Every structure is written in structure tokens, then in C-alpha cells.
Amino acid sequence: MHIGTTLTQFIIEKEHQHVEATGAFTGLLNEIATACKIISNGVNHGGLAEDVLGVAGTENVQGEEQKKLDVLSNEVMIARNQWGGHVAAMASEEEDDIYNLPREYPRGKYLLLFDPLDGSSNIDVNISVGTIFSILRCPEGVEEPTADDFLQPGTTQVAAGYALYGPSTEMVLTTGNGVNRFTLDPNVGEFILTEENVTIPQETQEFAINMSNQRFWEAPVKRYIDECLQGKEGPLGKDFNMRWVASMVAEVHRILNRGGIFMYPMDSKTAAKGQAGKLRLMYEANPMSFIVEQAGGASTTGRERIMDMKPEHIHQRVPVVLGSRTEVERVTAYHKEG
Ligand code: FBP
């Protein structure tokens, strides 16, 4: 009975190409995959499971109301990744500060960052949500990392990925050599390789943005969306369709499949709250930018390449414009024109 290439087999075969490999990287990715399988099970059970839907009654450091599954997913990611000796510390969108490992656990050479459950507003209404993760190297000689050790530009990521909990559960992963896609076979309990070298079409006629924020957008974004809405009679000479799932992980997955441009730009409403954007640089923008660029797309703030940014804070927010290269470069050029 042939089940295809499992995620573990795929990673080990890749690691064999690196003589200096110790297996720690495989070990870490395996624990992340196990955590995502557990979260997938919780999400899929929804209302059947005791006490997983609804709000937790607590707020995260971003001042957002936490959903019970936000908190549970965060606990699962920490529990699965703290014991194995692969990481030196972790950082989560749901934790105020970085998470230093309890004394009894060995320290590893990686730093793990994650958004345990992205798309929180969709959890209780059974729309796709996901887990996003990013892996960095722990600086040489650092036993007890601090938040500063995490403030590395996106270009230094060793790997990034996400699990999408939708009609099926999928994992998409890059280690800097293209993007690969795995589907969870619930009967076997394994992520099976279903597509290698995923590539984003350069051209697209589909945009994703929260239109209800239109009056708060900056001029370059207003101009671009106006032109998309003018269709083939307009300066872009083609009709555009629109999508908005309100789960970044689902938007990026659609774009990996058929192209598109996803935007959560800077706007005056966000600025009024003293924030530099809605989405988080370390847990959302950097890992998704690594995946999108490795699949041939582009990712900017509208003004600069996100992966070149020097992070200032582990909970820093940034504007995001990502997807099919042609449209992302167009929106970025509109910002440059001012
Ligand atoms: P979290 O759910 O992790 O807080 O992520 C933010 C997010 O839900 C993104 O996944 C999504 O793209 C965006 O916010 C939706 O924003 P809005 O509520 O404005 O539609």
C-alpha cells in the first residue's frame, strides 16, 4: 500500500543533501507538524468538542479579545516545541513576551515564531483558519535568548510555513528552495506531499482587500483599487474579481493556487491607533513573504520589501501588499509616485 511521500521523509531527504545536518531541523518541523495535526483536530471538531468555541475572556498584548481556540492553539504549539531540544526560545502572537523554556528542557539552535491561529474572526463561523510559523537561527553562544535576538530581518529565516484548516488540512512549507505543499491524510495521520515547487502566476485579475476600509486608505491604494474596478475599460485594460476571506492564511493559499494580490495597507484608522499597520511583521508578514517570494511572487509594505525590514519589536505591525509580482510592483510603483 503506497501512501506517497510523507512530510518527514521529504524533509529528511532534503537534509541528507546537507552534510552538516544534525536532524534538529527535521525534529523541529516534525513537532510543528504534530502541533498542527492536534490543532486541526480541535478546529475540525468545532461545536462537538467541549468548550473550544467562543471567547476566552482574555485579551492578547495587541489588545484583541482572545478566542478559546487562540489560547488552546498557543498552548499546543508551546507544549509540542519546548521539550525536544530543537529551539532555544519561542515568540507567539498570543504571548506578551518571548517564551523562554523551562529549566528542565535542553536548548536548541533555532528560534520559533508563530501565529497559533490566524483568522480568529472566522473560528466560530467555520471558515478556514490556520497556523503560521517562522524559524530563525539563535545567535551563536546565546543560551537564554532575549526579544532582541528575535529581531532579525525576514531574509534570515531558515524556514517558514503555514497549516490551513479548511475543507482539508494542508501544510505549505519553504526552507529557501522553493515551496512545497502537503495534505493531511486523516486516516493515516500523516502530511503527504501533494505539490512540489508551487509557483504563483505573475499576472492576475483578482484582488483581496477589506473594502470597508476604503475611506481610510492612502491615495496610491485608492487609485489602484479604482483602476481595478474600472475593469477593461480602465487603464489596466482587464476586469478584476474580488475576494476577502478575512483569514490571511486562506488568502495566501488561494494566491499560491491561482494568483492574486492581497492587501492590508496602511490606513488613517490604523494610524489613529498609533499603529503602523494591521498585520504582524514577525508572525504573519515575514513568513508569508518568504513563502510568496519563494513561489515567484512579491511582498512589500507598499513602499519597501518586507523581508528587508529590520524589525524593531516582536509585536511590530506593518502594511502588507503581496502576491502576483506584476500587480504588487504596480501598487509599489504607485506609492513611489506618491
Ligand atoms: P489574527 O486573526 O491572527 O489576529 O490575524 C489577523 C487577520 O485575521 C488576518 O488573518 C486577516 O487577513 C485580517 O486580520 C482580517 O482583517 P479584517 O477583520 O479587517 O477583515
Describe the structure.
By secondary structure, the chain is α+β, with helices and mostly antiparallel strands. Helix content is 31%, strand content 24%. It contains 9 helices and 17 strands. The chain has helices at residues 7-15, 24-45, 68-81, 147-150, 219-230, 248-258, 268-272, 281-294, 325-337; strands at 55-59, 65-67, 87-92, 99-100, 110-118, 129-137, 159-165, 169-174, 179-185, 190-195, 206-208, 241-242, 261-264, 279-280, 298-300, 317-318, 320-323. The strands form 4 sheets. It has an 8-stranded mixed sheet with strand order 4-3-5-6-7-8-9-10, sandwiched between helices. Strands 12-11-13-17-15 form a 5-stranded mixed sheet, sandwiched between helices. A two-stranded antiparallel ribbon has the order 1-2. Strand 3 (87-92) and strand 4 (99-100) form a beta hairpin. Helix 1 (7-15) runs antiparallel to helix 2, helix 2 (24-45) packs antiparallel against helix 3 and helix 5 crosses helix 9 (325-337). 45% of the residues are buried. The mean pLDDT is 95. The structure holds 1,6-di-O-phosphono-beta-D-fructofuranose (FBP). The site of 1,6-di-O-phosphono-beta-D-fructofuranose has 11 residues, from strand 5. 1,6-di-O-phosphono-beta-D-fructofuranose (FBP) is lined by residues 93, 115, 118-121, 210, 246-248, 264.
